[in-house]
Structure formats: C-alpha cells, structure tokens
Design goal:
The complex is a heterodimer of chains A (about 325) and B (about 375). With about 325 residues, chain A is of the alpha+beta class. Chain A has twelve helices and nine strands. Chain B has three domains: about 120 residues, Butyryl-Coa Dehydrogenase, subunit A, domain 1 (Orthogonal Bundle), CATH 1.10.540.10; about 100 residues, Butyryl-CoA Dehydrogenase, subunit A, domain 2 (Beta Barrel), CATH 2.40.110; about 130 residues, Butyryl-CoA Dehydrogenase, subunit A, domain 3 (Up-down Bundle), CATH 1.20.140. In chain B, strands 1-4-5-8 form a four-stranded mixed β-sheet, covered by helices on one side. In chain B, β2 and β3 form a beta hairpin. In chain B, α5 runs antiparallel to α6 and α8 runs parallel beside α10. The chains are: A alpha+beta (about 325), B alpha+beta (about 375). Chains A and B meet through α6, β9, α7, α8 and α11 of A and α4, α8, α9, α10 and α12 of B.
Chain lengths: ~325, ~375
C-alpha cells in the first residue's frame, strides 16, 4: 500500500505540467463559451506520448494524465483517448475518441464534434466507428464538452466489432469518468477556495463563515476520495473498484454543483468566471456509463450474487 | 503508488483471523456481540481474551520489544485493529490500553509508573477507563472543571466525569483534572477506581449498556507520584496520546460488514433479488465506504512514512461518518425491524453508531480543523 506517487509518476506529472503551463491558456475569445477544446494542446499531448501512457507505462499513469488535464479550464480529451481506448483495444487508434451509448445513437454525444473515432457500447460487444467531421452536426450545450449528433445514423453493421468487449469498455469508462470528476472537482474546489478567501460580504470573507467552510470541506473530502478511488481502480483493473470509483464520483455531483455554485454567488453563473468549465464537465459525466443507480446495482450484483461465498469478497479484501 | 497488500500483510491478517476463530466462544455472535463491547459481560471476557491474545503476541505487537511488543509495522497494527473491530471488538476497553494509554506511559511515565502499569496492560488483564469528558466539557475538553488541589504529597480531586465507558468495571482511571487557573492548566492523574470518594452511576441511553456512566470524585486523595508528566502538561501529552487514535475506528470495515449482514437478511426474507432499488442503494453505500477507506488508508500510509501530521485524519472521519449515516438510513428504511428484535447484530451496529459524529471530537470540529488548518480558510 503506497498512496504517494513514485518518482517516475512524479516525473510524468511534472513533465505534463510543464507542457500544460505553456499551452493551456484559455484564449480571450473563448472565455465566454460553454466549452473550449484546445486542438493544439491535444496534438502536443499525442505527439509527446502522454496519450500512449496506458500502453507504454500503465493504466494508473494514463489515469494521472486524465486527472491532471481535467484540472484545466480548457478541454483536451485524454480520458477516452489515453485510457479507455488503449485498455479496451490494446492498440493505438486515431483520436480524439468519443464514447457512445449504443442505445442512444440518435442523441447528442459528448465530444463527438472533435472525435475521429467513437467506441460504441452495444452491451455485449463494442463497435469502433471512424468519424468524419462532415457526418456530425454540432449541438450547443451548457455542458462543458463539445456535443454533436450524427447527421445520419451510422451503419454499425459495417463498423469494426470487438466481440465481448462491452464489459471492459464500461469498466474503463467508469475509471476514466471518476478520474475526470476527481481532477475537475479538485480544480473547482481550489478555484473556489481562492475566491471565498478574497470575496467579502458583511465585512468579512465569504470563506470565514462556518456554513461555507463545512460544506467546502465536505466537497474536498469527496474530491479526495474520488482521486484515490479512480487511481486504485486504474491500478487494480478490478471491475468492482471501477464501479465503486464511478458510483462514488457520481453520488457527489449534486453536492459539488450546488455548493460550489452557491459560494460564488451570482458570479458563478456567468461564463466569464470559469467555474462552469469544471462543474459542467462534472455534470455531463453524471449519467455516463450507466449512471449512479445502475452502477450501484452492478456493484451489488458483483458483491452479493447468489453464491454466499462470493459475498465475503469485499470485507475480506480489507 | 499502489493499492495492494504485501504478502506478509495478507499473512498477518490471516493470523489475526485465525486467532479470533480459535479464541472466541462458539456463541460469540449470539451472546456476546449483541451486548456490546462496553457491557460488563464483554469487559469481563476481555480479561480472559486479551491474556490469550498476549500469549500469541497479538495484544501489543507494535510496542517496543523490551515491554513485550515486537515493534511490528504500523500497517500490521492497523490490520489488527480492523479485524478486532470487525469481530465486535473482543478486546473490549483494552483497545484503549494498547493503542494509547500504554504508549503514553511508555513515553511520559516515570519508571515507577511503567513498572506498575505496563506489564498489566501488556498481559491483557487490567481495565482502564478514560476520565476526560464532563457535563460541560466534551469536544471542548479544556473547559473541564474537575479540580485537583495540591495537599502535600497528594492531590485532592473533586468533580465529575460523564460518558465514561467501562467505569463500572475499570480498575484504573486515566483522569484529566484542572490544577491551575488558566484554561490549559490541566494535569493527568492515574487513579485506582476503588479509591475512597469515587462513585459510579450508570444511566440509560440510546447506545448499548456500559458506555453511559457518570463518575463522581469527592475529596479523592491521589498521590502526586500518580501524576503523568509535569503539572499542567496534560494538553501536550493527550494531544500526542490521541495521535495514536487519529483515524479512529475503521468504520468502513465494520460498516461493510453490517451491510453484508443486512444483505443476507434481505435475501433470507426474499426482498433482495426482485428489488433493484434496495440492491442499487446497497451498492452505492458500499462505494461510499470504499471512498472512506481510501482516506483512512492515506493517513496510515502517511504515518508509516513518518510524514508530518496534517488534517487528513480529520477528513477521513468526515468521509467515514457520511457513509455511516447512509448505512443507518438504509437499515431504518429497509430493515426497520432490526431495531425491534429482528436482528441483534444489526441493532448493535446501529446503536453503537448513533453518536458516530460525536465521539472522539464532533464532526463539526473535524470540519473546522480541515477548513482552517487544511484548506487555509480564514477564522470567522
């Protein structure tokens, strides 16, 4: 058991930070948008090997890249491209990658306008779809990812099919979403702490009120648990760990969104204030990979199936 | 970063479980656990159990070798605590002895005090109670009013303590008493519970028997030689002593075990397989306990690495409490009859956890500490 990053992991994060510092600035022209995808940074991360970490180093390193990039107000797609796709396919595919629920093909999908490949969850199997930008109609959304829908339903029968890969897709999708929520939540909380220390009401900082402090700490506890659950799930490759990470992440969305918005008052609902870039990414992830109730059900089914012996698993895992 | 147990840690857990299997009576779950670990029955049992645990080297393995320990690693000490709590804490009150009373005496006690007490603790035969809380001094411990006034080579103690678990059956009291005019002029006295002038009254409550006692001190004479540390040094010593207990009870471990029991009960009643609502809730609560587990293990890892103390232990308590509250709600919603004779073990879990946000420093204090010392938010 070791909760600290290894020297190599520290070096990876440090090298990533040095790139992000130089290339992750939010352009003034994009400041008032609902989301801001940085294609240049996406390319730099791909070229410098950060999106190959899952295959070349391991999934926990890919999860660290996802967490660190999720802290940015600008968007780069590292979760599906750098973590989910390599773990499901075991090979490089053209990114960015979008993850799609096959039961809702006609809906708008997260990251579809920027994607070059989509992995479609068909239940048992996975379809790998090449995406042509001309086939996607962008859709405006308050959610802080680019959204788009297919202009014409893609022919899944002609797509490359990964038989039996559905479960692995959902497992790594869950790890990835927990990692994204962890990074975005930690960044949103740090942003909020800075704000409530400076912003004064009734002659004192907002952050000096106990009603604010206590709720901020509860948000912080949630983000910290999320961070370690996501990394544990990446480390272990255990489906229950993945389910627990995603369930935990999604259970806290309601608190994070309400409380962090509250603490910024009216400023928090303006798009010039940045808060929405993190919070509305978290909101978008709330329903993915099954959503909190379905994932809860899957945890129960795995932990407490018919055979009583299997029910001992989690308590014994210690 | 890695999240697995080393093979020797797995073996150690198995060794602890095997000891529990050997040493607990066949009717442990039916007869003893429902009485709760502070009951007279369990306290009495702890004298027998801990003596046997000591013989197996599992009572004070983390202590120095010269005092009967094996200087075992912090993770093993923590694994031992998890398994004991999961078994219903058959060490009864003696978990306090081995976790912080003994180590405090080893660090701050005189040679005479060590000679008098350490062997008794390490052999598992002595019961202590903790004379800290008072009617007007719980989390705000420095507000305590019990006084110890110097009279030659004795102190004369007057006052009262409350919520004093095990006081009815304890041999000794680890007492905090005021010895000077300022808020932190507090000293530690070790007092035999059969000293004239001490009386104990138990009172009923929501939690199980044995925890709710009031202890009255009327002109109790205590030798100055029974003071631990210097006069007025209690605050420093107790802060150190309780750092052994920073993360508190492993509530995720006992909580997951209770959840397991609840699932078994629901299955037996045919209310599990056809009800996705109850299954989804149970799965979500398991995830909450896993989140709490992560923050607790983080603190143990920091202790193992001898990193400076911070507020992560307070944060872990916050996370654990949230999961416990969900578990109590789950029981009340789906198995309400466990509080009316339906399942004694689940009733015990529920009742022990009624004050989960109060014992060992209220949740609000944990939140204050993290907010101000951890997140750097300004004081109000």
């Amino acid at each position: 058991m070791d909760f600290q990053l290894s020297e190599d992991q520290e070096a990876l994060v440090s090298a990533l930070h040095s790139i992000l510092q130089d290339h992750a600035e939010l352009p003034q022209a994009e400041r008032f948008g609902y989301s801001c995808f940085n294609a240049e940074l996406q390319g730099i991360l791909a070229d410098s090997g950060f999106l190959s970490a899952a295959r070349e180093i391991g999934p926990i390193e890919a999860a660290l890249v996802t967490i660190e990039t999720a802290r940015l107000p600008v968007l780069v797609e590292t979760a599906a491209t750098g973590l989910v796709a390599p773990m499901v396919l075991g090979e490089a595919i053209e990114g960015p990658v979008a993850l799609i629920d096959g039961k809702a093909m006609d809906k708008a999908h997260r990251n579809l306008p920027i994607a070059r490949t989509a992995l479609v969850d068909l239940g048992e199997d996975v379809a790998v779809l090449a995406i042509e930008p001309a086939d996607v109609e962008p859709v405006e959304s308050v959610l802080a990812f680019p959204y788009g829908r297919f202009r014409k339903a893609p022919d899944l029968a002609k797509a490359r099919r990964l038989p039996g890969a559905g479960e692995a897709l959902r497992q790594w999708w869950r790890v990835a979403l927990a990692a994204e929520v962890a990074g975005a939540a930690q960044a949103a909380i740090a942003f909020t702490i800075d704000y409530v220390k400076q912003r004064e009401v009734f002659g004192r900082p907002v952050g000096s009120f106990q009603s604010v402090q206590h709720r901020l700490v509860q948000c912080h506890a949630h983000a910290q648990s999320c961070y370690y659950l996501a990394l544990r799930a990446a480390w272990s490759g255990d489906p229950v760990d993945a389910d627990c990470a995603a369930s935990f992440a999604q259970q806290g969305v309601q608190r994070l969104l309400f409380d962090l918005h509250q603490f910024h008052g009216g400023m928090g609902v303006t798009t010039e204030h940045l808060l929405h870039f993190w919070l509305y990414r978290i909101r978008a992830l709330q329903a993915e990979a099954g959503g909190v109730h379905r994932i809860g059900l899957e945890i129960a089914n795995r932990l407490w199936p018919d055979a009583p012996a299997a029910a001992q698993r989690m308590a014994q895992a210690g | 970063m890695e999240f697995g147990w080393a093979p020797e840690q797995v073996q150690y857990r198995e060794r602890v479980k095997a000891a529990l299997d050997d040493l607990l009576p066949a009717d442990w779950d039916e007869t003893y656990v429902p009485e709760s670990y502070a009951s007279d029955l369990q306290v009495q049992f702890s004298r027998e159990f801990c003596a046997k645990l000591a013989e197996r080297g599992l009572l004070v393995p983390h202590w120095p070798k010269e005092y009967g320990g094996n200087e075992s690693p912090d993770w093993e000490h923590f694994i031992l605590g998890e398994e004991m709590k999961a078994a219903g804490e058959p060490r009864g009150p003696q978990y306090m002895n081995v976790n912080w009373i003994g180590p405090t005496l080893l660090k701050y006690g005189t040679e005479a005090q060590k000679a008098q007490h350490v062997q008794g603790i390490a052999s598992g035969t002595v019961i202590w109670c903790q004379g800290f809380s008072e009617p007007n001094a719980g989390t705000d411990l420095a507000a305590l009013r019990t006084r110890a006034e110097r009279d030659g080579d004795h102190y004369i103690v007057n006052g009262s303590k409350i919520w004093t678990s095990y006081a009815r059956t304890a041999d000794w009291c680890f007492l905090l008493a005021r010895t000077g005019p300022t808020r932190k002029d507090i000293s530690i006295l070790l007092i035999p519970m059969d000293t004239p002038g001490i009386s104990v009254t138990s009172f009923p409550g929501m939690i199980k028997d044995g925890h709710l006692n009031e202890v009255f001190f009327t002109d109790v004479r205590v030798p100055v030689a029974n003071r631990v540390g210097e006069e007025g040094e209690a605050w420093t010593i107790v802060t150190h002593a309780l750092s052994y207990e920073r993360v508190g009870v492993p509530r995720y471990h006992t909580g997951l075990q209770a959840l397991e029991l609840a699932v078994e009960q629901l299955k037996e009643e045919g209310r599990w397989h056809d009800d996705p609502i109850v299954r989804s809730r149970a799965g979500s609560i398991a995830a909450k306990f896993e989140g709490a587990r992560m923050l607790t293990y983080l603190v143990v890892d920091q202790r193992v690495k001898k990193l400076p103390s911070n507020t992560d232990a307070n944060l872990s308590r916050v996370a654990s409490l949230e999961a416990v509250i969900e578990m109590l709600n789950f029981l009340a919603e789906f198995l309400p009859d466990c509080l009316s004779g339906g399942n004694a073990l689940l009733e015990d879990y529920y009742r022990i956890n009624i004050p989960a946000g109060i014992t060992g420093g209220t949740n609000e204090i944990q939140l204050d500490l993290v907010a101000q010392r951890g997140l750097g938010l300004p004081r109000g």
